[in-house]
Specification:
Belongs to the FMN-dependent alpha-hydroxy acid dehydrogenase family. The chain is 42% helix and 11% strand. The chain is an alpha/beta fold and 441 residues long.
């Protein structure tokens, strides 16, 4: 843990964050104000949020079996540590869609962040900028695209005390801001879709991520119990993306005055399925607007859909079951990751999502072939505790956890030593997740 006895590698020494916490406690009596242990963090979030905020972040489809399947899948894969390996300098860096980033972790697109802190999406966007990690903005954002971009730029202009923040290298070489992804819920009004794409591109969002598994909300009993659909409540939180869009407002401002759910019902969770042909249209539109920047489909859970996504021209996919929020009793995302990687892993960028809580989880997803992972609930829980400081604490803790894991497990480079390394993991089909270690409502 001696910071003066560590050679500088490709990545910042994220592990030193643990030392900083220990020293603050030992020399100043300063302790963290909340636990970053995932179970304890989720539990303490109940005390920080009202029911609407807590359950929107934590509700699952049906009985929550898919959420549990996500965690069980991680439990059944076990890391095989190596010893007497020089891991004094680690390389966690990777290249994602021409962006050189310090670690293969992205902020997942999570809607309605004002439920967790008054500034909403401005908080994680700023922290993502500070860390040089890609930020994904949801169409269900409670802040306009343009404001989020400015917050991300502001974060990227800051440096931490040890000056170890690595800013990304963009597709044109260099750059001061972290890469930005725009997650699209595509409605059935092409004019509004084009308007969102143009706003995103103009604001520096250069990868488009289409979510295909949530054009209709899943059945979530814990949300049903309290009628937890905040878009209909006074104030219309979650409608900011629509109310800031000139095309939507020109067409629907009068409708919105009568029905606060017009934006969310019309353009986000509209209940009318799309087709692969429509996705082809969207790819063409995005590439025309963005000068051929990447297009990603979020919501892939089987090989057939992954192959189809490649066939129609997608640059990447997100292997996800929406964190267990859509289909109850479905496969865990990590269960299907290896077969999807085998089918398209050398043809497309594969981002993994659903159930990641720790550095070990990140390690396992990368070892099974993912190029990067999305983090959602973790940063929401942190933000719910202390806003910007809480979000930063959780994310720096995750980075330290991953960095320390690489050190003590004997792996130097995530992309060279871990990804697709069949010797790094062992599968235990007989393992059973302890009852205490699952999402609790």
């Amino acid at each position: 843990m001696d910071p003066f006895n560590k050679p500088r590698g490709q990545s910042p020494h994220y592990s030193l964050y643990q030392r900083d916490i220990f020293k603050a406690g030992g020399t100043k009596g300063q302790l963290p104000s909340f636990s970053v242990h995932p179970e304890e963090l989720q539990e303490s979030t109940k005390k920080k949020l009202n029911d609407r905020g807590y359950f929107y972040a934590n509700s699952n489809a049906g009985l929550g079996w898919t959420d549990r399947a996500n965690r069980e899948a991680f439990y059944k894969w076990r890391i095989i540590p190596r010893t007497l390996v020089d891991t004094n300098a680690r390389d966690l860096t990777t290249t994602l869609f021409s962006h050189r980033i310090p670690v293969p972790i992205l902020f997942a697109p999570v809607g309605i962040n004002k439920l967790y802190t008054p500034l909403g999406e401005l908080v994680p966007a700023k922290i993502a900028g500070e860390l040089g990690i890609p930020f994904c903005l949801s169409t269900a954002s409670s802040q306009p695209i343009e404001a989020v971009a400015k917050a991300n730029d502001k974060g990227a202009s800051l440096k931490n005390e040890s000056n170890q923040i690595h800013h990304y290298e963009g597709p044109n070489g260099g750059g001061a801001k972290s890469p930005r992804f725009f997650q699209l819920y595509m409605g059935h009004d092409d004019d509004i879709t084009r308007s969102l794409l143009k706003r995103a591109w103009k604001s520096g969002f250069d990868v488009l991520m289409l979510t295909t598994d949530t054009w209709q909300l899943g059945w979530r009993p814990t949300d049903i119990n309290i009628a937890n659909y905040v878009f209909y409540y006074p104030g219309g939180v979650g409608n900011e993306m629509g109310t800031s869009d000139p095309v939507f407002m020109k067409k629907h401002s009068e409708d919105l005055a009568r029905d606060s759910g017009k934006w969310i019902d019309h353009s986000v969770w509209h209940g009318k399925a799309h087709s692969w042909e429509k996705v082809k249209w969207l790819i063409r539109e995005w590439r025309k607007i963005s000068s051929n920047r990447p297009f990603v489909i979020k919501g892939i859970q089987c090989v057939a859909d992954a192959l189809k996504a490649h066939e129609i021209g997608c640059d990447g996919i997100v292997v996800t079951n929406h964190a267990g929020r859509q289909v109850d009793g479905a496969v865990g995302s990590l269960e299907v990751l290896p077969e999807i990687v085998e089918a398209v892993g050398d043809k497309m960028t594969i981002i993994f999502d659903s159930g990641i809580r720790t550095g070990a989880d990140v390690f396992k997803a990368i070892a099974l072939g993912a190029h990067a992972v999305l983090i959602g609930r973790l940063y929401i829980w942190g933000m719910a505790h202390e806003g910007e400081a809480g979000c930063r604490h959780v994310m720096k803790s995750l980075l330290a956890d991953l960095d320390i894991l690489m050190t003590v497990a004997g792996y130097t480079s995530l992309m060279q030593d871990v990804r697709l390394n069949k010797q790094a993991l062992r599968y235990n089909p007989h393992g059973s997740l302890p009852r205490g270690e699952h999402a609790r409502l």
